[in-house]
Structures are given as C-alpha cells and as structure tokens.
Amino acid sequence: MQSHTSKNILQEADELTRIDRHNSYGAPKQDFERTAKMWSAILNTEVSARQIALCMIALKLSRLAYRMKRDSIVDVAGYARTLEMIDESENKHEQSKMDSRRRNKKR
Q1: What percent of the chain has pLDDT over 90?
Q2: What is the C-alpha to C-alpha distance for residues 76 and 73, in angstroms, rounded to an integer?
Q3: How far is residue 60 from each of residues 5, 41, 45, 64, measured CA to CA in Å?
Q4: Which residue in 4, 8, 63, 80 has its CB near the most CB atoms, within 10 A?
Q5: How many CA atoms lie within 13 A of 67 on its CB side?
Q6: 4-31: string of b/e by CB count within 10 Å (b at 16+)?
Q7: Does 25 map to a domain?
C-alpha cells in the first residue's frame, strides 16, 4: 500500500468529508437521512442516518478484507467522521430545543 499524497489517512478523510463531499452531497446528516429513507423503503424497516454510516463502514471493511487499498481505509475514516458529524448535528439540534424550552418557561 503506497501513499499517493503527503496527507495522512485521517487528514485526507477529514478534508474529503468537510469540503469535497459536503460540496457535492450536502451535510452528512441530510445526505444520510435521504439515503436512510430510500433504504427504509427498500428494506421495509426503519433505517437511521447513523445506521447508514455504520453500514458504509461495514461495506468498506468487507472490501478491505478482500484487498487492502488505501482509498478504502480513507473511506472508513471518512464514514467514521460523518458518523461523528451526524451525532454533532443531532446534539446541536437537541441542545437548541432544550434552550428554546427554557426560554419559553421564563416567559
């Protein structure tokens, strides 16, 4: 496995998720929520954005079990980062709802 870039795997994955993929597909939470709706319809069971990220990691691990490729390792790190971004987005949303309830109680 030879590196084709001066960036390490985590730096490359972070850049891909924050810039390239974000510009192409939007924020991970919204992108994976769209995918989750489609998978839910296909599988006839509720699928979450978090589960999409976990399934994509599993897919990449399966490919790595067959053949070690740097880009698949970058993808695993990238999907792990998108999982974190989804959690961060959900936590901000929950915090915003809690703050709104507190403001309403003070009125």
Answers
A1: 61
A2: 5
A3: 20, 23, 23, 6
A4: 80
A5: 2
A6: eeeeebeebbbebbeeebeeeeeebbeb
A7: yes
Residue 35: the pLDDT is 96
Q: Which residue has the tokens 């994976």?
A: 32
How far is the C-alpha of 35 from the C-alpha of 73, rounded, in Å? 22
**Contact criterion met (CB below 8 Å) for 53 and 79:** yes
Q: Inform me whether the pLDDT recorded for 105 exceeds 60.
A: yes
11 belongs to a structural domain: no
**Diameter over CA atoms, the chain:** 62
pLDDT at position 18? 84
What domain range includes position 84?
Answer: 21-106
Total tally of structural domains belonging to the chain: 1
Does residue 32 fall inside a structural domain? Answer: yes
Is 43 part of any domain? yes
Cα angle 59, 55, 88; round to 5: 130
Structure-token pair, residue 3: 């590196």
